[in-house]
From TrEMBL:
Enzyme Commission code: 2.5.1.18
PANTHER family named among the record's database cross-references: GLUTATHIONE S-TRANSFERASE FAMILY PROTEIN, GLUTATHIONE S-TRANSFERASE-RELATED
Segments forming a coiled coil: none
All residue ranges annotated as the GST C-terminal domain in the record: 88-214
InterPro entries: Glutathione-S-Trfase_C-like, Glutathione-S-Trfase_C_sf, Glutathione_S-Trfase, Glutathione_S-Trfase_N, Thioredoxin-like_sf
Keywords of the record: Transferase
Domain of life of the organism encoding this protein: Bacteria
Stated name of the protein: Glutathione S-transferase
Enzyme type, top EC level: transferase
Residues covered by the GST N-terminal domain: 1-81
Length: 221
């Protein structure tokens, strides 16, 4: 497979980068600055008309949705064992959890916009920021419940592409929500971020990041 991943550090394209590393697939990486409008260039918009990352070119075809890309690549590399076959008992849970990554993703994106993209205080709504924070905590609550039986990863059988899709959000979540009340999620996060493939998906030293604060507090109203 010839793969080119279009990526911005710390954006959802990290899911694809992480999975490519888990699968040991060769790829070319094109990195864009999240803030400098390079995702709005004519050449990038020709690839992704909405100007988002990821975009991935695979053997001349283009995919634009990180969950679908993760699912597809896990299927293409079935022998690596990160997908779950259509007839397997875990198939339903696998797909359900893999796509739950975007339920986390929507709140993280809204919080990123509110805390970081809308940089002037007057642009922000503390009410909306507080609500999104609570909704993110609630979404994490489902995972806390799932992991409370002592499993290491989302599926009882072990690490899968669903952990990559969800894991991006789990990595990011503590910038917005304290994990003290979610001990199983916190332990799961610690397991995920020590995976060598995850470390390779992080921005290199000195790269411009989206998230520069350890925690983004909701302003008092
Ligand atoms: N559901 C899409 C969302 C893609 C998306 O919105 N990516 C964000 C980064 S996390 C982006 O490119 N934002 C740039 C922008 O909105 O200008 C996916 O998971 O691939």
């Amino acid at each position: 497979m010839k793969i080119t991943l279009h990526h911005a550090h710390e954006a959802r394209s990290m899911r694809v980068l992480w999975l490519l590393e888990e699968l040991g697939l060769p790829y070319e990486l094109q990195v864009y600055d999240f803030f400098d409008k390079s995702l709005r260039s004519d050449s990038y918009l020709a690839l992704h008309p909405a100007g988002r990352v990821p975009a991935v070119e695979i053997d001349g075809q283009v995919m634009l949705e990180s969950g679908a890309i993760v699912e597809y690549l896990a299927e293409r590399c079935a022998d690596m064992g990160l997908g779950r076959a259509p007839q397997s008992d875990e198939r339903m849970a696998y797909l359900d959890l893999l796509h739950y990554g975007e339920t986390l993703g929507q709140h993280l994106a809204n919080l990123t916009q509110a805390h970081i993209v809308l940089y002037e205080p007057w642009m922000r709504s503390p009410t909306q920021m507080g609500l999104e924070t609570k909704r993110l905590a609630k979404v994490l609550g489902r995972l806390e419940q799932l992991l409370s039986d002592g499993r290491d990863y989302l599926l009882a059988s072990g690490f899968s592409a669903a952990d990559v899709a969800v894991g991006y959000g789990i990595w990011l979540a503590p910038r917005f929500v304290h994990l003290d009340a979610l001990p199983h999620v916190a332990a799961y996060r610690a397991r995920l971020i020590t995976r060598p493939a995850f470390a390779k998906a992080l921005p290199p030293e000195g790269a411009r990041r989206i998230y520069t604060q350890a925690f983004y507090e909701v302003p008092n109203v």
